[in-house]
Structures are given as C-alpha cells and as structure tokens.
Amino acid sequence: MSKPKVLIAFYSRNSSTEILANAIAQGAIEEGAEVRLRRTREFVGDEIMSQVPGWRENAQAMNQKYEAPSEADAEWADAIVFGTPTRFGSISSELKAYIDGLGGLWFQGKLNGKVGSVFGSTSSLHGGNESTLLSIYTPMAHLGLIIVPLGYADPAMFKAGTPYGATHVSARDSLRPDDDHLAVARFQGRRVTSVTRGLLHAKIPSAAA
Fold this sequence. Notes:
With 209 residues, the protein is α/β, with parallel strands linked by helices. It is 43% helix and 15% strand. The chain contains 8 helices and 6 strands, in the order βαβαααβααβαββα. It is globular, with a radius of gyration of 17 Å.
C-alpha cells in the first residue's frame, strides 16, 4: 500500500505555529506518511505588516522555506491538518482564505472522506486556543472531511495540548513550544497518519470480493 499523504497547511507569524507544524510532520513521517508542509500567505500590504515589528521579515523567511498551499495540494492529500494562531478567538484570515479557496474541490466532492485535523497557538493564556480549533471544525465538516481529534489517547495528552488538537501559549512570543507540547504535536501526526492508513485500507476491495 502507498504511504498516506498528509498535507499540513498552516499560518504562522512568529514561529510558534510553525514549530508545532514541523513536530506534527515529524510524527506523521515516523508513522510512515508522505508529508507536504505549506505556509499560507499574507494578503495585507507592507503598510500593515510594518506596524508589527518583525512581521515582514518573519514572513519573508518562512516563505522561502515553505511553498504556499494550493488546491492541488488538497486534492493530492489523503489527510489535511490545518494550523493557525488565534485571532480574537478564531481562525486567522490567512488560513481561512486558503480554506475558502477550496470551494472548487468541495463542489466536485473531491474532499469527501479525507481526514482532517487542527492545531494552533495563541500569545496569551486563555487566549482562545480551544475556541479557535473548534471554529475550524465547522468548515471542515462542510468540506466533508473526517475530523480526527486527539482525545486522551496518548500519555502526552495529560501534560499539554487539548483533546481537539495540539496547542501552545507563547506568552507574547517569549516561550517556544516545550517538550510536552511537541510530544502532543508528534502524537497528532502519528494519529492522523494511522487513522488515514486505516481508511485507505478499508477502501481496498478484498481478493474475495
């Protein structure tokens, strides 16, 4: 059987979400997945970006490391993992714009049955990590994705993260994800891959059929 194909489409401004994305990719690869890491792009101009110290420079650096996610990436994938920083308790506009752009695939039914999962980060304690992840569940349901949460299916979940997906609180970008949070993210990559593999296996007709 071919490797499960996992797309990790994320937005990150100051690297917290990026670090979680890479840990999820690591877990998925360990479980045997083929992974594409993609960063969504800003659609505001330099005038807006220049108001936030380091935003433009960080964006340029990350955009050199990661391609932008495309419709073709979503069609290629067996599983799509969305990652976002919290924006006022909800999804970032940069990631939402990518999701909104998948309408053509949705209309053709090409996303139905793919696995979907989410992760995110916030700057402040109680800054909306859980509400943000749950807010992404809604468009995922409309797209026809099979939503895979984390539950408490691994010991790492009793130390960090949420049952909805890996998370991190950066304390105004003064803290990077620690070992406990990275363990949750790696578990998420493994879990998404194993569930995806099971669904792919179930689609293969048996020799006796």
